[in-house]
Design brief:
CATH topology of the largest domain: BirA Bifunctional Protein, domain 2
Number of helices: 7
Radius of gyration: 20 Å
Shape: globular
CATH superfamily of the largest domain: Bira Bifunctional Protein, Domain 2
Order of helices and strands: HHEHHEEEEHEEEEHHEEEEE
Strand order of the largest sheet: 1-2-5-9-8-7-6
Length: 303
């Protein structure tokens, strides 16, 4: 039996826990998908298009794509792909994964927060807290705006503070009267040989030797749903303190792609989830783009 067929996801049990929180939820596990985010976005766009002959053909192609029992709808859906062949990260980056060694899934749901700012940070907090309950020295750190890292407490001076454990990709689409959020999660579960990883590689087995992709999903799914519901009601504020406890960048010399903020010292997160970067006496807010740690530099070196 292949490793793919050997995975036991416990979808019915997970559905029983989540459906009261998300009425109408479906949970679907497929052996392969190009991108779970793209699959769910495609469904919503099909539903939102007018009923033309072209739409009929698109709907048929969606329904024949082995995406489970539902297509072309905007009800909540948790879609898991055992193998995601074209996973996407921010700014068009690829997310490498393999069967059993990775957990790749997307959760789509209608969401209507007063302010969307900081949503990826709130999701990061929920996932990190589920995997690594807060203690005096958190093992899972958060790298603004959408990465989870496994911290290396004994990292040498000039070495990276940790290695990348997972990533988050959030996309939204208007579907009729609702705005649908699609929250994609990718987590490294077991060791695997991957190439060209600028942020290193870490996996959940380093936190728990007994972990598996299905057990990791069972661990993070409910906290994720609860976090999204809380964010819809209260925004980023309830997550700010918990994010600060895991902030990988705070105090680090960083470079950014935002015009006018080439290098500075990360100084935490604003109330709306922007990265604060101190350059001399000036405090900048970085709300988009990329940020990287300038290894080997101290905060004093940047002044």
């Amino acid at each position: 039996m292949s490793q793919s067929h050997a995975l036991q996801w416990g979808a019915e049990s997970l559905w029983q826990r989540l459906e009261p929180l998300l009425p109408g939820l479906s949970i679907e596990v497929v052996a392969r998908s190009v991108s779970t985010n793209s699959a769910l976005l495609e469904r919503a766009r099909v539903r939102a298009e007018p009923p033309t002959d072209e739409l009929v053909q698109v709907r048929r192609s969606v329904e024949s794509g082995a995406f489970g029992r539902r297509a072309a709808d905007v009800q909540p859906c948790l879609l898991v792909a055992e193998h995601q062949t074209g996973g996407r990260g921010r700014l068009g980056r690829t997310w490498q994964s393999s069967v059993g060694a990775s957990l790749t899934f997307s959760l789509s749901l209608p969401l209507n927060p007063a302010d969307w700012s900081g949503l990826s940070l709130a999701v990061g907090v929920a996932i990190a807290d589920a995997l690594d309950p807060t203690g005096p020295a958190p093992r899972v750190g958060l790298k603004w705006p959408n990465d989870l890292w496994l911290m290396d407490p004994q990292a040498a001076l000039g070495a990276p503070p940790g290695r990348k454990l997972g990533g988050i990709l959030i996309e939204t689409v208007t579907a009729g009267p609702v705005r649908l959020a699609v929250v994609g999660i990718g987590l490294n579960v077991l060791p695997q040989p991957l190439e060209d990883l600028s942020s290193g590689y870490a996996c959940l087995q380093e936190l728990d030797a007994a972990t598996s992709a299905p057990s990791a999903l069972a661990q993070v799914a409910e906290p994720l749903v609860r976090a999204l519901k809380a964010f819809e009601q209260h925004g980023f504020a309830p997550f700010a303190e918990r994010y600060a406890a895991r902030d990988l960048l705070r105090g680090q010399v960083v470079t950014t792609t935002q015009a006018g903020v080439p290098t500075g010292v990360a100084a935490g997160i604003s109330p709306k989830g922007a990265l604060l970067v101190r350059e001399g006496e000036t405090l900048h807010e970085v709300s988009s783009g990329e940020v990287s740690v300038r290894l080997g530099l101290s905060a004093e070196d940047s002044r």
